[in-house]
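$ ./design --mode recover --in tokens.txt
reading tokens...
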């Protein structure tokens, strides 16, 4: 079995990828680094859940301290971009660079990310960023689209089964704002239609 560093955005997204990697002959090391998470209470909740899931799954858990200020600087030029655009690309790059560095520092040859389990994340963008980061850091990026073959649905199922906290927004301040705007719009539309 080969070790691979698995960057995890949260516990639910780490559920099915752990099994998928094991099925491919990898021994995953779960790594949590998500300075994008906002507010801090959300970060701390997702960190605790990820740590707990790693323990329950029997895998090694690593974490780097959040560097929210540096992350904010990295994505600020694209603050007005909608979710899924260049702001997300910069966010992916920031977190995957840290994951690649941590993989290299741990003596691991490869890294990957649970971000691909979400149907809301562009796998092609993740692949491009992962390849660029891997090339610049001297480690391999394991290109695995974890949402394939029912991976996303399995993650939802496993999350429910194990009582894991499932968030309803990406995690960053911008996606939280967008979620709140969508809720407000739906509420306004409901009010108008019920009159």
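writing sequence...
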């Amino acid at each position: 079995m080969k070790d691979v560093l698995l960057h995890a955005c949260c516990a639910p997204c780490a559920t099915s990828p752990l099994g998928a990697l094991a099925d491919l002959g990898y021994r995953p090391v779960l790594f949590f680094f998500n300075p994008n998470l906002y507010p801090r209470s959300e970060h701390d909740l997702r960190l605790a859940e990820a740590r707990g899931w790693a323990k329950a799954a029997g895998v090694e858990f690593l974490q780097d301290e959040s560097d929210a200020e540096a992350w904010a600087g990295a994505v600020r030029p694209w603050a007005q971009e909608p979710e899924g655009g260049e702001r997300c690309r910069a966010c992916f790059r920031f977190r995957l660079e840290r994951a690649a560095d941590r993989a290299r520092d741990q003596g691991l040859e490869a890294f990957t990310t649970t971000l691909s389990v979400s149907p809301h994340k562009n796998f092609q963008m993740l692949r491009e960023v992962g390849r660029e980061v891997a090339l610049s850091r001297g480690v391999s990026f394991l290109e695995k689209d974890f949402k394939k073959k029912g991976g996303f649905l399995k993650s939802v199922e496993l999350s429910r089964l194990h009582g894991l906290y499932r968030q309803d927004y990406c995690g960053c301040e911008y996606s939280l704002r967008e979620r709140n705007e969508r809720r407000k719009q739906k509420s306004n539309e409901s009010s108008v239609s019920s009159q």
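exit 0
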